[in-house]
Fold:
Amino acid sequence: MSYDFDLFVIGAGSGGVRAARFSAGFGARVAVAESRYLGGTCVNVGCVPKKLLVYGAHFSEDFENAKSFGWTVGAPEFDWAHLIANKNQEISRLNGIYRKLLNDSGVTLMEGHARLRGPHEVEINGQVHTAEHIMIATGGWPQIPDIPGREHAITSNEAFFLKELPKRVVVVGGGYIAVEFASIFNGMGSDVTLMYRGELFLRGFDGGVREHLRDELTKHGMTLRFNTQIEQIDKRADGTLDLTLNDGTPFNTDCVFYATGRRPMLDNLGMETVNVELDDKGFIKVDDNYQTSEPSIIAIGDIIGRVQLTPVALAEGMAVARRLFKPEQYRPVDYRHIPTAVFSLPNIGTVGLTEEEAKKGGYDVQIFESRFRPMKLTLTDNQERTLMKLVVDAKTDRVLGCHMVGPDAGEIIQSMAIAIKAGATKQIFDDTIGVHPTAAEEFVTMRTVTR
Structure:
């Protein structure tokens, strides 16, 4: 049968664009449909604008620390609207780059809402197109629990476009988005309360990392309330919000920001026209080749609910492009040892096994740990401390995990990830000469087993 396209991608996020561009480069006829914004969540309402806001939030601390290095500065003033305007300009520039990348690759870009019409058919803007393969890469969408008054709360989607910086913010959630935005609002001068229903945030991260960040956020003036849930939100005539908490205590704030998870974005996608199975959380089920239960339909990225990180979606998109149109270059995605960063203030960087995972996996574990004030802060009154931690297999000497909380943790952990991926031993770390004076050298100078 003859098709209009070899591959039709629904969703121009990171994974979809990567799959489309390289498939076209391999000679395939490719189309991409996008109903919102080019670049997906990461570029528009995720990683990129969030990192810009994190940079902005850190300046309040930089101005204060500068005094100890001989700088005399006036009273700093912060203009939220100016930052958001500059952020919007940068995102617009990136949208243009994504458009150019697709066009220069020979991909047909269709802007509008695409719906499946069958295993090989997609409808968009009133026209039906056929394709041998259809890829679903529509990502996720933030969700707010179904409580009375939920319409008064915001998510990350709205936070990037607030007209004014709220004076008081309640951030609800215990994942990386929650702690990142709590740090952003706190650094910019808002009175921030982070509420989480569990005992401690960042479930799944190393226990030492979680506890260290808890202590540092408290030092930075943030209020942390664990084992706490909002049961109802009521809006006053003055615009402020009254919260009813699970312990019955009243709480008033100016803004409630929810970061309590993301759902798969399958709205009005025509899923009823195809035999695509979903898991119990609503994510699309796929096999090792990202094929769904409908042989012609592929799914990658956040929509499959595996590892919801932009670089992982990129790797999945590349793997699909190679498998379909350049099989001699195909390599499956390796989900082991994926490094990640949390851009809280201070940052978290982590790769490999946590201490808890290593013990649960039956390893005879040695822990090397160091806590210290960064050199940059030694002339100041800032009492922030950095944590660096190695999890080592005592039998083989292999470094199983590497974790850090401190300035530039994400930048430093990228290099550590290469060593972990390569199977480096603690001896190799010890034999590596450090760059002095840096914080990163601590990873190769820790000699004493902590426990």
Q: What stands out?
A: The radius of gyration is 24 Å. The chain has three domains: 5-141+263-329, 150-260, 340-444.
